[in-house]
Specification:
Helix content: 25-40%
Largest sheet: none
Number of domains: 2
Number of strands: 0
Strand content: under 5%
Bound molecules: zinc ion
Oligomer: single chain
Mean pLDDT: 87
Order of helices and strands: HH
Distance between the termini: 46 Å
Low-confidence stretches: none
Number of helices: 2
Radius of gyration: 15 Å
Length: 90
């Protein structure tokens, strides 16, 4: 388990590297359902995501990565991807 602070500084280093390589600004996307994400227009569930900690308050872990699991609203502008929605063309 990587401490949150180390993860965040790794994230920032990764963003800086991408920014340097591509010339496009990159930023760490705040966790789904967190206050910070909601301030940026996140539409993901708040309670289901433990207010940004993850499902079951961060206790639910991905079986391989061991990282917290989140519920994503596919229409969320920060975390979603509407390409994954199986909608009929009208
Ligand atoms: Zn979201």
């Amino acid at each position: 388990m990587i401490p949150r602070q180390a993860r965040e500084s790794l994230g920032r280093a990764w963003c800086a590297l991408l920014e340097e390589k591509t010339g496009v600004p990159h930023q760490i996307v705040p966790n789904p359902g967190s206050e910070e994400a909601r301030a940026q227009g996140c539409l993901c569930p708040v309670i289901d995501n433990g207010r940004g900690e993850g499902m079951m308050g961060g206790e639910a872990k991905h079986p391989v990565s061991g990282l917290p699991v989140f519920t994503i609203n596919l229409l969320c502008p920060l975390h979603g991807n509407s390409d994954w929605l199986d909608l009929e063309e009208t």
